[in-house]
Amino acid sequence: MSCISNEKDAGAGEIDGRVVWIAAADSARELPRRLAAVLLEHRMKLVTVTIGMAPQFPFRPEDLVVFEGETQADAGFPELVRTTARTCSVFIRSSAMENDESVAWKTWGAQFLDEDEGSEVIKARLLKALKDRKTPANRRESRPEQTTVPEWRRTMVGQSRGIQKVAEVIRLVGPRRCTVLITGETGTGKEIAARAIHNAGPRADAPFVALNCSAVPGSLMEAELFGHTRGAFTGASQARVGRIEQAEGGTLFLDEIGDLSLELQAKLLRVLQEREFQRLGSSETLKMNARVLAATNCDLRMKAACGEFRADLYYRLNVVPLELPPLRSRISDLEALTQHFLKKVCEEERLEAKRLSPPAWEMLEAYAWPGNVRQLENVVYAAVILSGTRAVLDEGDFRMLADVYGPSPSIGLGVQSSGSPVELPEHGLDFAETMNALERDLLSKALKRTGGNKKAAADILRMKRTTLSARVRVLDIGQKLLSA
């Protein structure tokens, strides 16, 4: 969290109020710095927070919250203003806005500060707002809506458009019984999403049982899933309850479902359809009362087409699909995620709080994160441990990105962070035509490398095969071009 605070200049008990200044990550901080000293004279503390960290910031009912104009470009801006205005006095510092937008924000209680207003005018308006909040007529007697963010949403760190779409699906399916198939690259947080679905519904207080289908040998998987009686097979010296029974009333999460054998796929399909099963070695039929969530990092549709996965089970699991975006496509969440892991590691290891230097932030933002959020967590953990007693982590603490994981292309067009894929001529260029040319070139090279195999080419470019096929048609990339 980027923070400017005048709290250290005030003695204990001298602060009457707090101004929380929400700014864009690259916003200039001159005005809040000037205001900090002025507000201190009136016993008010000023804290600045970046828009990426604002959803996790512990707002207080007495806070005066100011949103800088640049923050309106953030996808989570409207929802953040609406929820913050429920408990705090909210100001939006901006240039003139359209009337309909102004009315929309005012219906949530937001006020406007013109960007041309100086620090004295802003100070006067903030002091007046503080005085108004202290009057009995304007003080809220109770604030039942103060905790507006549900606990499960706090586990989905970030406010990017991609993660907001994921959160919206979780909110809608959480209270239901339908199966959900969670897909995404390794390390994107599929089990976290599954737990969020579990905690967002009425089964939150019941067991959440996870089973990694690739971690259990095929010969033992059936007993692990359904349980067994004593003597059901060699070595079964006592009866054992399976994962389905352990999840009674709660949620059964089957991770890496694509690694389940075809024989067990048929048995699982019957359980999902009939809601009943039998332990190994028993003729007693037991009822299943657990919600099933599944996850995979492979293309089950393709595996079904190749006969490696049952198509009927695929459609039974894929009632509601939930695809988790890779970290490189939600890079705006990098700051919030990094801060989250920094705090987590420092608390677990009982260390003083640490922060990153600007060059370290630039290094993390330039990396493509092939291991996604899990890789980021491991990298932050290692950097914190190896930094010793230093409070500031610099880019040297993250050299393991290259030493351990190897060099990574920068996010975007796959060039090294020190290079540029396109030179900008003095006379300018046609943006759409240039982007189409770049895309055509990348797609052609990937298809040539894979001998025209679209699935393999899509894997190289980290995109869906259907998306690649569509772009090949739009850009008219034919066999003649590929063989050139």
* Residues in β-strands, percent: 5-15%
**What is the helix fraction of residues, given as a range?**
25-40%
Radius of gyration: 27 Å
| Total beta strand runs | 16
Write down the oligomeric state.
single chain
Name the structural class. Answer: alpha/beta
Low-confidence stretches: 6-13, 96-103, 135-147, 409-419
Q: What's the overall average pLDDT, rounded?
A: 80
Number of helices: 20
Shape: globular
Largest sheet: 5 strands, parallel
What is the CA–CA distance across the termini?
52 Å
Q: Reading side by side through the largest sheet, how are the strands ordered?
A: 2-1-3-4-5
Give a short overview.
The chain has 484 residues and is an alpha/beta fold.
Overview of this structure, please?
- The protein is 40% helix and 14% strand.
- It contains 20 helices and 16 strands.
- A five-stranded parallel sheet has the order 2-1-3-4-5, with helices on both faces. Strands 7-10-13-6-14 form a five-stranded parallel sheet.
- The two termini are 52 Å apart.
- About 8% of the residues have low confidence.
Keywords:
484 residues; alpha/beta; 5-stranded parallel β-sheet; 16 strands
Topology, element by element:
Blueprint: E1 17-23, H1 30-40, E2 44-50, E3 64-68, H2 77-84, E4 89-94, H3 99-106, E5 110-114, H4 119-134, H5 151-154, H6 161-173, E6 180-183, H7 190-199, E7 208-212, H8 218-226, E8 227-228, E9 240-241, H9 243-246, E10 251-255, H10 262-274, E11 276-278, E12 285-287, E13 291-296, H11 300-305, H12 311-317, E14 320-323, H13 334-348, E15 355-356, H14 358-366, H15 372-386, E16 392-393, H16 400-403, H17 431-449, H18 454-460, H19 465-474, H20 479-482
Parallel strand pairs: 1-2, 1-3, 3-4, 4-5, 6-13, 6-14, 7-10, 10-13, 15-16
Antiparallel strand pairs: 8-9, 11-12
